[in-house]
Amino acid sequence: MTTPPLAVVTGAFSYSGSAIARALHARGFALRTLTNRATPLHPFDGPIDVQPLQFGDEGRLAASLRGARLLVNTYWVRYARRGVGFEQAIRNTGVLLRAARAAGLERVVHLSVSNPSPASPLAYYRGKAEVERLVAAAGLPHAIVRPTLVVGARDVLVNNIAWFLRRLPVFAMPGSGSYRVQPVALDELGELVAEAACSPEPALTLDAAGPDTISFEELVRAVARAIGVRPRIVHVPGWLSLAALGFLGLFLGEPVLTRAELAGLRAELLVSHTPPRGRTSVLAWLAAHGQDLGRAFASEQARHFRRS
Ligand SMILES: NC(=O)c1ccc[n+]([C@@H]2O[C@H](COP(=O)([O-])OP(=O)(O)OC[C@H]3O[C@@H](n4cnc5c(N)ncnc54)[C@H](OP(=O)(O)O)[C@@H]3O)[C@@H](O)[C@H]2O)c1
């Protein structure tokens, strides 16, 4: 019997990493995850070795990658907190890539975002472009997968839209709501990443986007239909919606939507400019999963800062 190839996935108990781990497992990979999560947010049912995701000791990080054929990197931060912002996340990813090279990996698959740019006014998208540059310069065969908006169970944006819709009779739509998004289903993202992992192309870059390009307002209305509520949608200036969300964030203990995230949405950065690879309609996914959406607030703080 031959030994299955080993894939290391960062964050296999978190959001995208869980779907990627499932898709790689289905393709016959043995799995290891690098994570700091004690309690899985998204349980992975197959066998998996667990090591910490620590950037302070490059030698130890390389040791935790040794023996693997593949690294899938999902690591990034949503916003700056506790001294770790985008600059630090770039440096951390650089450490991970050097460790991958030292460990003799055959391929790295890196999760980026749609429309990264070194010229972006938004630090998230500039940082993503810089990390893509590091991945390409690491001297390893690689694939860069750029998701748009990843929709699945317990994701932050759609789940929390549902959470608000379940609790408030009025939804304050930032601006016109006509700016578009092109979501991709979580499981389909896992499949696209696994395909990119198995591709023989030494330097592959692709968008992960689904078939539906819809306005943000259509997305909110689809979530409302899925959970069975009929909200009054009120259009308010972006600054006012951010002020209202900032106020609610005081009670929730964390930012609900950052100024930069709203700017990215309004600039349609979550729309792909290549033919969609995803075939799953997120609208159909929402309709089928409405009963589970928004039951609990999806907290970034609980996920990444209040660890058990
Ligand atoms: N979710 C989306 O809609 C979306 C859209 C476009 C692009 N992306 C990109 O796809 C990748 C994965 O996103 P995701 O939503 O699936 O992320 P996630 O599961 O929340 O986190 C991915 C990985 O980053 C680690 N991480 C996240 N925040 C951290 C922090 N503040 N400090 C230390 N470690 C942290 C997690 O650690 P643990 O394992 O310890 O939890 C996990 O290993 C990211 O590069 C993201 O930019 C996501």
What can you tell me about this protein's structure?
This protein has 308 residues and is of the alpha/beta class. It has two domains: 6-150 and 184-208, Rossmann fold, CATH 3.40.50; 151-181 and 212-304, Alpha-Beta Complex (UDP-galactose 4-epimerase, domain 1). It is 41% helix and 17% strand. It contains eleven helices and 13 strands. The chain has helices at residues 15-26, 58-65, 86-102, 123-137, 156-167, 186-198, 216-227, 238-252, 259-266, 282-289, 300-304, and strands at residues 6-10, 30-34, 49-51, 70-73, 107-111, 142-147, 150-151, 170-174, 180-181, 184-185, 203-208, 214-215, 232-236. A seven-stranded parallel β-sheet has the order 3-2-1-4-5-6-11, sandwiched between helices. Strands 7-10 form a two-stranded parallel ribbon. Helix 1 crosses helix 6 (186-198), helix 5 (156-167) packs across helix 7 and helix 7 (216-227) runs parallel beside helix 10. The longest helix has 17 residues, at 86-102. It starts with 5 loop residues before the first strand and ends with a helix. 43% of the residues are buried. The model has no long low-confidence stretch (mean pLDDT 95). Residues 10-11, 14-17, 35-37, 53, 74-77, 84, 111, 113, 147, 149-150, 155, 303-304 line the site of NADP nicotinamide-adenine-dinucleotide phosphate.
